[in-house]
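User: structure tokens for this one?
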Amino acid sequence: MAKIFISHRRAGLALLIGAGLSAASALAGGAPVPEVPQPEPLLTEAEPATAPIGHPRLRVGEVFRDVFLTGRGAGPELVVLPPGRFIMGSPETEPGREAGEGPQREVEIGYLLAVGKYEVTWDEWSLCVADGACEAEFQSDHGFGRGRRPVIEVSWEHAQEYARWLSKRTGQPYRLLSEAEWEYAARAGSEGPWSFGEDMSQIGEYGWYSLNAESMTHPVGQKAPNAFGLYDMHGNVVEWVEDCWADSYEGAPVDGSAWTEGDCTDRVMRGGSWRTNPRFLRSAFRFSTAWSFRHTHIGFRVARTL
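Assistant:
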């Protein structure tokens, strides 16, 4: 049975939702989920993670929410990912590969990383709008519906506005993922084209895409999570990340940080969407668009370093 921990900290409360099962399976309603893989881990599962001051000690795979410092409410659910190393990019032999997905290189995520369990939803976005910190002028859902569906038609700057607002409301440093962090989170230990491996016939079990989405977004969390316990890393909406665009990984950071040099009028997007085919849902697929661009298939998720 899931356990709920509430702890006081200097400026407010933090709400931690843990589990006696593996963390990923607890958040999937108790259904069996593969254990979180830890390729070349820098922290073992048995070793307690170092938690923020005044916060319950977080372990890899646990899920928590930061409660707002004032008023009622809390931020999105976050999953604690382990430090580790992985090979970023795709091999030249991967079907559908594009030149910008290389050269492959080893990247080290040398820290605990809390990543949004889901893409940011309309419900979560509406709290920022109600506070006057996020724009409401584009608030059309194009008939898809709102609630637990991912918010859409957000530019890169809109995503930044939300992260700044969430940081202020919780007292914690929220941000977009870097491109390297995103791929690490999406792969969840897999070296194949998708988080579940190489069998393209399984894509419908893990994501909403052109052949099953009926030309619209869907409520988050309806498909299977990856081995880290993250949902919709393949499909539903494409996700903004922090990085400026570069045509290849030549000279890119290898420590998990965002690449903030190059053509910063264009920002990187990841994950594929309800309107794309499986080739564009691959973990290594990347593309870019102007930071101000908005569309019905564009959303984001948040993260913070622990």
